[in-house]
């Protein structure tokens, strides 16, 4: 439980939203967020009640957003910020922002809770962390989708200069923790090393389901570059980036 602030104010609340139906993916986020040891903020969790177990393309993203919008309305007014935990240009991010503006206006509230997606948050951190970055994602279909999303988010000039592309593992999000660990880890390492050959200094984990795989990416960096240089590579978890971004806006 979060402690009261020094001024005795009520702790802030952030709703962590998993827009797919896989409860295990939501549950995997809890120890990660607990490990941040944030004392002045509470975290609540939402898993899509209907939709898709894994968001593997733009159609899945659209369907998952549609299935989340109405259930999420029960959460409005209860939280100070909202984090959408799907690593994509997920439509639920902008839809929830619009909903929050409408909700605040109807109740004549002067403040609108911030909403962020883990994709956009990770890009903010990547640009601060290294001259060049890349993304390790899941299925091969995400290579093109990520390229489009990064260029749309950053603009062509910045993306061309700073973004070195997306490499994929071949596993969908809901397979990462059920497939044999040695196979998943080997695929993660191969994707990481392909990015390192392009000179990246930061690697974004391109899926909320990659929680716990940071150490595998770091091992790949050390194997490819040696202990000293390998540990210099910034490994970015979008969930952590999103929490930092939102707390900075509260």
Automatic annotation (TrEMBL):
Q: Which InterPro entries match?
A: Asp/Glu/hydantoin_racemase (IPR015942), Hydantoin_racemase-like (IPR052186), Iso_Racemase_Enz_sf (IPR053714)
Q: Which is one GO molecular function term here?
A: amino-acid racemase activity
Domain of life of the organism in this record?
Answer: Eukaryota
State the family it belongs to: Belongs to the HyuE racemase family.
Q: What is the protein name stated in its UniProt record?
A: Hydantoin racemase
């Amino acid at each position: 439980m979060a402690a009261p602030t020094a001024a005795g104010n009520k702790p802030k609340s952030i709703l962590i939203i998993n827009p797919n139906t896989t409860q295990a993916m939501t549950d995997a986020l809890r120890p990660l967020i607990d490990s941040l040891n944030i004392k002045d903020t509470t975290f609540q969790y939402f898993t899509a009640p209907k939709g898709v177990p894994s968001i593997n393309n733009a159609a899945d993203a659209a369907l998952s957003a549609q299935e989340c919008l109405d259930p999420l309305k029960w959460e409005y007014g209860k939280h100070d910020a909202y984090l959408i935990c799907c690593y994509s240009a997920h439509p639920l991010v902008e839809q929830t922002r619009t909903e929050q503006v409408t909700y605040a206006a109807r109740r004549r509230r002067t403040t609108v809770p911030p909403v962020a997606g883990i994709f956009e948050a990770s890009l903010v951190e990547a640009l601060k962390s290294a001259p060049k970055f890349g993304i390790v994602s899941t299925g091969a279909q995400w290579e093109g989708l990520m390229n489009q999303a990064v260029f749309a988010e950053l603009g062509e000039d910045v993306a061309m200069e700073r973004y070195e592309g997306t490499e994929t593992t071949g596993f969908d999000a809901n397979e990462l923790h059920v497939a044999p660990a040695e196979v998943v880890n080997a695929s993660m390492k191969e994707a990481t090393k392909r990015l390192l050959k392009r000179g990246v200094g930061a690697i974004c984990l391109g899926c909320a389901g990659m929680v716990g795989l940071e150490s595998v990416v770091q091992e790949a960096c050390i194997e490819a570059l040696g202990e000293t240089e390998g540990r210099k590579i910034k490994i970015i978890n979008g969930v952590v980036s999103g929490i930092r971004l939102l707390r900075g806006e509260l």
